[in-house]
TrEMBL record:
CDD domains: TM_PBP2. It comes from Paenibacillus lutimineralis. It comes from the Bacteria. Keywords: Cell membrane, Membrane, Transmembrane, Transmembrane helix, Transport. GO terms for biological process: transmembrane transport. The lineage of its organism: Bacteria, Bacillati, Bacillota, Bacilli, Bacillales. This is Carbohydrate ABC transporter permease.
Amino acid sequence: MEPTISVKPNVQRGEFRRFKLSTVLIYVVLSAWAMTTIYPLFWIVNNSFKVSRDVMNNSFSVAWQPTFVNYTTAFDRINIGKSYINSLVMSGSTVLLVLIFGGLAAYVLSRFNFAGKRAIYSLLYATLLIPAFATVVPVYELLIKTGTVNTYWGLILPHTAGNLTFAILVIAGYMSTIPKELEEAAFIDGSNRWQMFYKVFVPISQPVFASASIFVFLWSYNDLFSALIFVSHKDVRPIVALLSEISSQYGTDFGLMATAVTLTVIPVLIVYLFVSKYIQKGLTEGAIKG
């Protein structure tokens, strides 16, 4: 019989200890980083269940006896529900238009070769360098001439135009990784270009569409500067513009301010939870040229 040789892994205790210490250190750093984001959100939500006096005297204490008077005031006195609807309508319409036009443009740029393609890409990248503040005056003049100031379209159109470049570049980068064989198989099955787009490319590109939608929604939803200029009327005022007026109308009511901020964050969290699983996949795969 041949002797049996047992092989044991050569792991030194020092290496094992260093590996464990580094893992613990990583978790500690990540946990501390997470707390810097979670705690301010908890602080806002916690203070929304306090009256203004308690917020001023001891804002870091837990609201063991919560009150809902701030939420009642938010919906009854400052009509925050109307601003909610305005924000969701304008931001949702912006996301829908950006995905439709951006998806079609990205499909053409990623799957077709034509003269001037490089020039179009250069132009798209160049538009990212133009600050939004530089376009306020001409955009406002266009909205006045078309009669869309203080209407839903007064914010939907500028936001759609402003976010379209980002969506086109991200979606085009993802679509360029889709294998050519899928197009050939679709052609064999009798699909035309339009059918190929919404039956093949749109379903496969769901991760990047989800990634683009969350970013476009956040940028549109949180754009206070454009909201104060283009839709300042109270009937079409989004919720971010309403927040800027609460401090002037109810300057000392910090509980109401915390409530308004809490209600503003809720839609963002809901949208993010629905599409968060697609974000990392869409952005990383869209950056790879196949």
